[in-house]
Amino acid sequence: MNLKKRLILANASTVVIPLLITAIIALASFFVFGKLYGMDLSLESYQRLAQIKIELLNSETNILLHTPEVVEEESFQMHLQEQLAGINGEFVLIKDERVIFSSRNFSKIDVAKSLEAGEMKGRREPVVIGDVSYTVQLIDLKIKDGSQRRVLLLAPVHQSATNLTSFLVLIGVAFVLTFILTNIVVSYQFSKSIIKPLNNLQSAAAEIRLGNLDHQIVEEGDQEIQALCRDLELMRIKLKDSVHTQLKYEDNRKVLISSISHDLKTPVTSIKGYVEGILDGIANTPDKTEQYLKTISLKAHQVDQMIDDLLLYAKLDLNQIPFDFERTDIEEYLLLCIQENEPELERSHIKISFLNELCQKHHVLLDRERMKRVIMNILDNSRKYMSQDQGELKILLRDTSASLIIELRDNGSGISEVDLPYIFDRFYRSDAARSKGSGLGLAIAKQIIEGHRGRVWAISHGKEGTSIMISLSKA
Predict the structure, then answer these.
(1) Which of 25, 253, 273, 413 is most exposed by smallest CB count within 10 Å?
(2) pTM of the entire structure?
(3) Distance from C-alpha of 107 to C-alpha of 306, rounded to nearest angstrom
């Protein structure tokens, strides 16, 4: 349920529930007082009571509109008596604590009780005189000579009319109490459905603030709060992944420092050794000096190549190198790459061959220079780890419905199942081959291929060699 519907239901409940409870109390009261005790709680009874009240009010108004002295005139007294006759009412005129006129023969005790009832301004109880219950209205008048006149207006009321008034008061009190109680309960339940999920969110936020990113945020509450919980849970997951990635990068940085330090140390140590040999006079012939200098040049070239690989990978990783894509015939491009690398491979006793399984010419969008670096890195990697006396490299080209597959397969010693998932990770190398490269060749190849929106993976054939697979979208 969403908050809008819950709010509408809560507001409706605060009105509907008290009305229903009040209606049930009213029906129960009708049954209890009407059926069991025989009290008349009908509307006619209340109308009679209202008529009596109105007549008394009219009589009071009639008296107050005239001068106080007029109440002692016989004609006015007759008129007032006729006016009260419609409700069988009576009136008594009192002058200085003495009754000077009474429409009915009331005893002093009856008059005293009526005066006492009339002086009760808050709640006037009926006065029982004989067998009749009267409601009393007291009017005080002051004459010019300073004397006081008091008029008692009495109207007979049935006990059921009084019961109806009490019944209406009971219904009103019941409605107010149930309204207050319903508001308290509904407000508590409504706030509970919001506050509890918010408290849980606050606890989860505190855990995240303390660095505990494993504290799961559960979806609960109304739809809006569930959406908030869901978004915060996604934020927690992304934050956790970000921290995990950051830690992974930190580990990679440590591996980088370790790998580069090891790889640079070997050629730099060799350079220092040969330079010291020349300075110490060990290279005492021109041929030996030339050999030392060539070795120094080769080692310096290795150092330079490692630094170039590191800078290239860093730029590719930060997307700082733009790609210049051209529509390229893939068969012609691979033949050109083979032609450029064939002499170097032959010197290493490696035979390279090409097999095109395409039924027709296909084109792809390539950055020719970057993709050439990919082919060279893969071929160079195969050459370094070739264990056969007569190495073989095969480049196979085939297609699927949406992509072109380039397979570069060698007959080397293969890659172990342990190392296979990691060979495209940066700086990853097995310990056995630690001194044979910087560990960035295949990582650079992967970055370039992914820059072409392609995919690269490896398949090990055990001791029969390894296949590097490249998938590129057709142009």
Answers:
(1) 253
(2) 0.47
(3) 130
